[in-house]
Write a structure and sequence with these properties.
single chain, 312 residues, alpha/beta, Purple Acid Phosphatase, chain A, domain 2, six-stranded mixed β-sheet, disordered C terminus, binds fe (ii) ion
Amino acid sequence: MRILHCSDPHFDLSLRTIPLRKWFGKRAIGALNLLGGRGRYFDDADEKIEDLVRFKEAHQVDLVLCTGDYTALGLQAELESAAELIAPLAQPPERFITLPGNHDIYAKDVIHSDAFWQYFGRYMHTDWPQYTVDGIWPFVRLFDDYLAVIGVNSAKPNPLPWRSDGHIPPEQLEALGRILADPRLKNRWVLVLTHYAARLADGSPDTPRHGLRNADEFLEVCRVIRRGAILNGHIHRCYRTDLSSEGLSIDLFCAGSVSMEGRECFWLFDIDRDSMTVRRGVYDWGEYRLLECRPECQEERPRSDYDTISQL
Ligand SMILES: [Fe+2]
Ligand SMILES: [Fe+2]
């Protein structure tokens, strides 16, 4: 199977169309953030997704995974617009899997209104409902007889504007442990998706204000995975982190942002029963393309040193 992992499109809905009554608290600060210049990095996100659809079709991608942060402020109007913009990439819907980023559930009322679920729930189906703790999480998708994709939710509202940290609820981690112990996963590649990065490119944890608070517990649960990967976004740089020094057999892949001006990137996985190869996608001259493949790309678990990583 050929799998495209992208993240953090941050579609920029024109601020003029956002109802003023929705501007309050942290959202107002987020809006100011956008007005202050952050938004301009994502000005062309909608056109770039069209370019990514062309890449997907040209390269016969079988499955697309997106690890969240579709919006800036998590407003209902933004989520509705983002769902429309992502729809061409999410065809057929059963071959698109996603979960929310922190920007998609910026404030508690989005959670309570189930707005993300309303627009993106169709891409968060589970094949094993018996393992969910709330009817949604963790979700498990099985493909052929050799691949499983599991999603856990690490995004949460952050009422304090200077914080953007994440957390995987302990019940989900416990359920993830039970899923990974299911003998039906024994011979499958396992991809675990979440929005927050458990580790940075150099293997260190992210800061308490920006990172995954229970990253150590999450990695502990993932230690039983023999082959596969942890996939996340949130940090707007593509990088690959070797976790073997922490006793894990799998690497972590951050898909950065698929649309951020000057940093556009994604990962392309080719997985069959016996092997997994990974290549990095970039954007230039108006199109997405794969980086030139170095010799190590042909190895089963190639190492990537394509980028010098710094945290956004
Ligand atoms: Fe983001
Ligand atoms: Fe994020």
